């Protein structure tokens, strides 16, 4: 990647894993292993773990994110969490549009766009997830689909706000399956996303955006994926639940 232009960021997505006590143990293991990182290190954790993890990482280089947020500021939305609630705790990042939210919880390109808007308005940095299903890849529509997801999600986002957007390319068929995209496949789609950003915001702004790959990235394949010119980091599921594996990926992004 081009380190002069943009910062590598490795973010863990813990998904629905770890009680607060387990979260404390895991993040405390991560702190010494990732302290020399020459890249951004973020852990996105379940809402109930935020307090514990924020407290545990105080004074370290690890930053904390949530895994989703609602688009309204407050109101009758039982079970939901607003972006302002997150920032008031000290949360800096939020994942929006993860394929699991789209597949199981009815998130659409339109609700993703609304969540992105709310998160940016609250001052959060967004990790926006885009990616295709296997059938879509086989139909040859990956680039069009990812371009459309990116464009809709960023509707109304200014060039200045774009500096608080990270995009994670996560092919759905590679998530939790152990089937990683090849380094070339990952780079091709990340480069396509950058072309879309360039068409919307110009090449200088597009070159400054961190574009991550996510989908079975692990301690073994991270280096090859992160060596690609348009892959600026990773959004890590399973391997982010093991401090040692996560730190190996952080080291691969720090070279
Ligand atoms: P895995 O690394 O477990 O495939 O998950 C990737 C992911 O969904 C990160 O958001």
Question: How large is the radius of gyration?
Answer: 17 Å
Query: How far do the termini sit from each other?
Result: 10 Å
Largest sheet: 8 strands, parallel, barrel
SSE succession: EHEHEHEHHEHHHEHHEHEH
Strands, total number = 8
Hetero groups in this structure are: 1,3-dihydroxyacetonephosphate
Strand arrangement in the largest pleated sheet: 1-2-3-4-5-6-7-8
Query: What share of the residues lie within helices?
Result: 40-55%
- Taking pLDDT < 50 over at least 5 consecutive residues as the criterion, the unreliable ranges are none
| Coarse morphology | globular
- Total of DSSP H or I helical runs spanning 4+ residues: 12
Q: Roughly what is the average pLDDT, rounded to an integer?
A: 97
Percentage of β-strand residues: 5-15%
**Structural class category:** alpha/beta
Please describe what this structure looks like.
The chain is of the alpha/beta class and 255 residues long. Helices cover 44% and strands 15% of the residues. An eight-stranded parallel β-barrel has the order 1-2-3-4-5-6-7-8, surrounded by five helices. The chain starts with 8 loop residues before the first strand and ends with a helix. The mean pLDDT is 97. The site of 1,3-dihydroxyacetonephosphate (13P) has 14 residues, from strand 8.
